[in-house]
Design brief:
The chain is of the alpha/beta class. It has a single domain, classed as TIM Barrel (Alpha-Beta Barrel). About 40% of the residues lie in helices and about 15% in strands. It is built from eleven helices and nine strands. An eight-stranded parallel β-barrel has the order 1-2-3-4-5-6-7-9, surrounded by nine helices. Helix 6 links the parallel strand 5 and strand 6. The radius of gyration is 19 Å and the shape is globular. The chain starts with 9 loop residues before the first strand and ends with a helix. InterPro entries: Bact_Lucif_Oxidored (IPR050766), CmoO-like (IPR019949), Luciferase-like_dom (IPR011251), Luciferase-like_sf (IPR036661). This is Luciferase-like monooxygenase. Pfam families: Bac_luciferase. It comes from Flavobacterium gillisiae.
Length: about 325
C-alpha cells in the first residue's frame, strides 16, 4: 500500500506523443521511445499513451500501434493506453488488438479505457461514433471483458488472440461517472487530474467507498495523473513551463498549436483572465527544482492517498524532458 510520500509510491509516464513546433510525428515517435528506454532504467512502473484525433500537436491517434512500438523497444516496462476511447471502436477490435499486443509482450500490456471521443464532434462523426456511444460505455466494457475471458471459448464471437489472456483493464476518468463504474466492476481507476482537477477528491471518495472486489482486483487501486516540470533550479523549471502553459492556454482559447519553445516567464503571453482560467485547469501541476517538486508532490500524495502517480511533462526540449523525469526518478530513492 502507498505510504503517502514520493519515495514509497510507484511512478509512471503518460506520454501524449506531442509534436513540437518545427518537428514532425517521426521525431515524436523517436523521442517517445527514447524516453521509454530511459524511464525503464530509472525505475518507472508503466508508460501509457493516449488516443487523440485531429490534433496537429498530438501524434498518438493509432494508439495500439504506438504501444507496440514502445513495447518492442523496452524490456520490463509495462506499456499501455491511457486510454483507448472505447466508444470509437468495436469492443471486438480492441480485444483483438490488445490480445495481439499481450501475446507479443506477455505480462507487460495495460488496457486503459475512456468514454470520451478524444477529439471534436466532427472527427467523432468521422470515426462512426454515434450520439449514444458514451451511454453504451459500461456495456462495451462488459463485452470486452467477455472476449478476454476463458468462459467465452464456446461463444459465437471470439477474440483470437485475446481470449484467456491476463490483460489488466483500467477505467479512466475526469469526472465522477467513471468512479462509480470502476468501483462497481472492481477495476483499477486512473483519474485525469492533469487537466481536470476539480472532481479528483470527490471521484476518489466515490470509488473507494463503493468498490466491489473482483477477480482482477481485491482492493481499490488508484492512479492520479499530474503534470511535472522539474529542472535543476526553480527558475529553469519556470522557464521550461512556459511551453506547457502556452499549450494548455491554446486548448482553453480554442487556438490549438504545437508545443513551442520556452520563453522568459516574464514575457506576459497571457492576460490575467486567461491566467486564472489556466490555473484552474492545471491545479495539479508541479513546477520547480528537486526540493520544491518533492515537497509539493509529498503533500499531494498525503492529501489524495493515491497508490500510483502518473506524470505528464510537456517540455519542448527533449533533453530537458528526459532530465525532468530523471530528477523525479531520483527523488524516489
Amino acid at each position: 500500500m502507498n505510504k503517502n510520500n514520493l519515495s514509497q509510491t510507484k511512478i509512471s509516464v503518460l506520454d501524449l506523443a506531442i509534436v513540437r513546433d518545427g518537428g514532425n510525428a517521426a521525431d515524436t515517435f523517436k523521442n517517445s521511445l527514447d524516453l521509454a528506454q530511459h524511464v525503464e532504467k530509472w525505475g518507472y512502473e508503466r508508460f501509457w499513451l493516449a488516443e487523440h484525433h485531429n490534433m496537429p500537436g498530438i501524434a498518438s491517434s493509432a494508439t495500439s500501434i504506438l504501444i507496440g512500438h514502445i513495447a518492442a523497444g523496452t524490456i520490463t516496462l509495462r506499456v499501455g493506453s491511457g486510454g483507448i476511447m472505447l466508444p470509437n471502436h468495436a469492443p471486438l477490435i480492441v480485444a483483438e488488438q490488445f490480445g495481439t499486443l499481450a501475446t507479443l509482450f506477455p505480462n507487460r500490456i495495460d488496457l486503459g479505457l475512456g468514454r470520451a471521443p478524444g477529439t471534436d464532434q466532427f472527427t467523432a462523426a468521422a470515426l462512426n461514433r454515434d450520439a449514444h456511444a458514451a451511454q453504451e460505455f459500461p456495456a462495451n466494457v462488459e463485452e470486452l471483458q467477455l472476449y478476454f475471458s476463458e468462459g467465452n471459448k464456446k461463444g459465437r464471437v471470439r477474440a483470437i488472440p485475446g481470449e484467456g489472456l491476463d490483460i489488466p483493464i483500467w477505467i479512466l476518468g475526469s469526472s465522477t461517472d467513471s468512479a462509480y463504474l470502476a468501483a462497481a466492476k472492481g477495476l483499477p481507476y486512473a483519474f485525469a487530474s492533469h487537466f481536470a482537477p476539480a472532481q479528483l477528491l470527490t471521484a476518489l471518495s466515490i470509488y473507494r467507498n463503493n468498490f466491489q472486489p473482483s477477480e482482477q482486483l481485491k482492493e481499490p487501486y488508484v492512479i492520479a495523473c499530474v503534470n511535472v516540470i522539474a529542472a535543476d533550479t526553480d527558475q529553469e523549471a519556470a522557464r521550461l513551463a512556459t511551453s506547457f502553459k502556452r499549450l494548455f492556454l491554446g486548448i482553453i482559447t480554442g487556438n490549438r498549436q504545437q508545443l513551442k519553445e520556452a520563453v522568459d516567464p516574464g514575457e506576459g503571453f497571457m492576460d490575467p483572465m486567461e491566467e486564472a482560467a489556466l490555473q484552474q485547469m492545471i491545479a495539479y501541476t508541479f513546477i520547480g527544482g528537486p526540493e520544491k517538486v518533492k515537497k509539493e508532490l509529498d503533500y499531494f500524495l498525503e492529501k489524495t492517498k493515491v497508490d500510483e502517480l502518473m506524470v505528464a511533462s510537456a517540455i519542448y526540449d527533449h533533453q530537458a524532458r528526459l532530465h525532468s523525469y530523471e530528477i523525479l526518478g531520483q527523488l524516489k530513492i
